[in-house]
Amino acid sequence: MTAEATPSLVEKTDGPAEAGPSVHGPRARTRTAYLRYVAGKVGGAAVSLLAVLVTSFFLFRLIPGDPVKYMTGGRQVSAEQLAAYRREFGLDLPLWQQFTEYCGKALTGDLGTSYQFNAPVIDKITEALPNTLLLTGTAFVLYTALGVFLGTRAAWRHGRLGDRLNTGLALTLYSIPSFWLGLLLIIVFSVGIGPIPGLFPTGGMESGGEEGFAYVLDVAHHLILPVITLVAVEYGQTLLVTRSALLDEMGSDYLTTARAKGLRDDLVRRRHAVPNAMLPTVTLIFVNLGRTVAGVILVETVFSWPGLGGLFYQALSVPDLPLVQGLFFIFAAAVIVMNTLADLIYPLLDPRVGR
Amino acid sequence: MDTHDRYSQYDRTKLTPVRSLRPIRLLLAAATAALTLTAALTTPLNPAPQRAQAAADDGKDVLTVAVAQSVDSLSPFLATRLVSTSIHRLMYEYLTNYDPKDNHAVPGLATKWEPSADKLTWTYTIRDNSKWSDGKQATAEDAAWTFNKMMTDEGAATANGSFVANFRKVTAPSPTKLVIELKKPQATMAALDVPIVPKHVWENVGDFSKFNNDKTFPIVGNGPFVITDYAPDSFVRLKANTSFWRGAPKFDELVFRYYKDQDAAVAALRKGEVSFVAGAPALTPAQAASLKGEENIKVNDAPGRRFYALATNPGARAKNGEKFGDGHESLLDQKVRQALFMAVDRKTIIDRVFQGHAVEGEGYIPPRFSTYHWKPTDGQKLSYAPDKASQLLDQAGYKKNADGKRVGKDGKPINYRILCHATDPQDKAVGKYLQEWWGELGIGVTLNCLDNVTDPWLAGEYDLAFDGWSVNPDPDFVLSIHTCAALPATPKDTGATDNFICDKQYDELYEKQLAEYDPAKRADLVKQMESRLYDTGYMNVMAYPNAVEAYRTDQIESIMTMPQDAGNIYGQDGYWGWWSATPAADGEAASEESSSAGVIIGIVAGVVVLAGAGAFFTMRRRATAEDRE
């Protein structure tokens, strides 16, 4: 993505007609304005993070059910054991005391201990986070690239057969439930149907017992189907946003000017139209980037991917409060950080923002 | 309430901004590179799809089991999920095991066990031919240490504390002699489902409530298999313990692979990637039907260990005598409870809801536990007879009003609220039938389907509820949950009780059976309890759902079920299935080759398509300006 945005900036400063004002004053003023803008955005993000920390504690205590009852449900337990569980989890303390303890610990980076796994929440998260990032990150890069690429093509030749096919296909895939598509891919490409052989594993992230390069290959092999599923259902969104943003620019006078200069058509598109149409896409990209952390519950489930989405589901069903809170905080933090980053980048893309 | 079943570093394709490459081409190149790379990874270098198969390249026989649960903990002191406790069965010997034929206690780590005359002291002889996988001898000292730890350390009592609740003292006078002194007689002393751990390893553990036993591999044990590898949320890998005292398992490796989606697990079985699918807790009728008739796959539709019942609220109360909850007063009448059950067509439930994968319910304990299974006598049996049910209700004084609705003592039409598990399609389906059948009796039914039934359940805020438990070879636990002693101390507390039953006659029988050390006499007492429970109409067993599972016969030649004649494999009380499984003669060599060939074809096809797409777009780009003008 950055690859798309960066050169456009380069183009601007290179262009002879765009030599900036050399007066010292306005530039310094712009910089101060930008700094003020940055400070505002970062400050807002910090406040949001704190709010999330507080909300997550109370929000999940609204889930009906007593974790101790759930976890001991269907088992032979004595009253002493139940009391021990409560003490262990700190559930015997008054709510306000649980809250102050939670806040104190959270500020030192301790998110508590998972009820069901008897392990620190932070360990469970760091265990699953790389798995999720591998899956969603790879998919993110691919669907963003594909979406932007096909979106610009579709807009540039809008109304033609290619555009209609492209947009139609993207919309169709976008509306397909991911778990259904995933299951279909498993049946066709993992198990194999007719002449199609079973090429890929049916689930999981690794076969186990591999080391070194063989391990990397093995993981990549497991990665293909879930990534294809994600790319298929996700790229449509980027495509449509990019397409409509670019369509808005299509009739602009500056494009006519550019053509009048005798520029080749794809140069007009790349240097002039696309950079101006990128703003909505960049927003979407950063929103998507923030979401990559939250994982994708359905795709992770169908492909038995050991990521955060699945962990969140397991945590909610207890409810494993510390784990739920920890995950919620991480998910929210990722989105907040990414949105802030997007906010910080806008002024670079469009100098009108942040003035 | 419910059954216990319910209960980085890789390929990161970086987009390095190279000036000379134009952005679009760069993206295209990167995407193509990423896809080609991943495609290339599937070259025959890595025949991963078949890795799990019985006959692997290196000649190892690997048995892969698809399970529907992830491991909660590998520490036997903490683990409560079925998948984890099943694995602990394989890692550690218990004092005793259950016979695969009829579930009677057979030697495990102990070769012999006998009570003292006063019934308060049990002496176990510990075998001298069981070694820990690190070479040290397993002794009575290990067993004594395990029990003592659970008795003294709250953290170590988390999972199995109830087994030692009645223990007064545990000692090991010699390496082959273990002595357990009890507070009061306990007939279940040959059914202590507690993994015995090696003292020399575990005495170094600090906090038992946090130690998950998942950092150092292999994990020292003395069962038929030893854990060599574990990836959270993914798999547990075990290798055969060749020095296991009962004899080495036939498979070299055993892998439990976690499939979050059971349709994907079934697909994996069909492909041969896994050898066995357990289902969660059983394959659905649709999954079983799709696998039936498939070549090399056997669907094992075995008698299950669960019962599926309709429990009534007998008026929730605590031990201190306080009543709570809001169960319908009419249900306090035994005639009403029996009438309701007589209007339940169990056969239809088996045929329609379970689609044949269940057995009609009668006594409390399922037939697979033949020693304790009981059937009502002809005179006692509450057969399906809606007319009789109607008469019984009339007799009880709940007559129909002008609208055809039966009215309660308060003059209002009777409408029962049934608690059902929102996640359980069976509950909902049976509930619909009950609405119909009881509607004909003039009784209204409201289905209260919740994700979490625990809260109204424990508060006694329901009239009837769908209930089910997994039964152990020793029935003590499922019997104990209907005693008065299991009621909560006060309405605020939680008791072990299932649905607040407190019946004097039942309790007397319960005490007797717990102190009865003669197996035949005890079984007789247990049957009397079941008879009493049946008559009360508090727990109406509708069905015993089957354990439906499937495996590949071209990977597993034979495997022991439990009970041996017709029984299940996953979740047995014992290690019989996995220990006895023998690999099929020549496994999957042929299919492996063909699928390697398939991999190559697939990659070639993928690359061709990608290259084609790349070329197409490049050409489109060339065609640019002229096209537009």
Automatic annotation (TrEMBL), chain A:
Membrane-crossing segments per the record: 37-63, 133-156, 168-193, 213-233, 323-349
SUPFAM superfamilies, per the entry: MetI-like (SSF161098)
GO CC annotations on file: plasma membrane
Cited CDD domains: TM_PBP2
Biological processes annotated in GO: transmembrane transport
Recorded topology in the membrane: Multi-pass membrane protein
Pfam families linked to this entry: BPD_transp_1 (PF00528), BPD_transp_1_N (PF19300)
Boundaries of every ABC transmembrane type-1 domain copy: 129-342
InterPro entries with a match to the protein in the record: BPD_transp_1_N, MetI-like, MetI-like_sf
Region (Disordered): 1-26
Keywords, sorted A to Z: Cell membrane, Membrane, Transmembrane, Transmembrane helix, Transport
Subcellular location, record wording: Cell membrane
Family statement: Belongs to the binding-protein-dependent transport system permease family.
Protein's UniProt name: ABC transporter permease
Organism classification: Bacteria, Bacillati, Actinomycetota, Actinomycetes, Kitasatosporales
UniProtKB/TrEMBL annotation, chain B:
Cellular location(s): Cell envelope
Chief place where the protein resides: other
GO molecular function: peptide transmembrane transporter activity
Signal peptide positions on this chain: none
UniProt entry tagged with the keyword Lyase: no
Domain Solute-binding protein family residue range list: 106-480
Keywords of this entry: Membrane, Signal, Transmembrane, Transmembrane helix, Transport
SUPFAM superfamilies named among the record's database cross-references: Periplasmic binding protein-like II
Alphabetical list of InterPro entries matching this protein: Peptide/Ni-bd, SBP_5, SBP_5_dom
Full protein name: ABC transporter substrate-binding protein
Organism field: Streptomyces flaveus
